[in-house]
Amino acid sequence: MPALNFKHRFADKVAAGTKTHTVRAWRKRPFKAGDVLMFYTGMRTKACRKIRPDTVCLSAVAIEVDVLCGVVSLDPGSVNYPLKSGRTLSLTELTRLARADGFETVLGFFDFFADKHGGGCVRGQLVEWNPISLTL
Q: Is residue 10 in some structural domain?
């Protein structure tokens, strides 16, 4: 059961069910549909707390966020390998992605990745979960 740690700014949105996916770096064992996900904030600190009940991963697809060009590409057919070529999202799709990821605007989405990862491309997985929990 993979555990996901969220920054404090996203914890309430995850708990409320308004943030339904996250972008994560590639792991040794990539996420996959059917994984049971655990949700925390403050992991590895005394303030660690579970922010929602365990939930099933609906999908985990390759994603590339190009901060400099303002482009996001998805490769739904490539779950376990970095993106080599994928479909670039339209502005409408990018807006939906940014909002579902907890951002008010597309610019806020790209600013977050620029601050966290610097310029250039971020490659990883877009992990989406069921907004309905396994246990209440």
A: yes
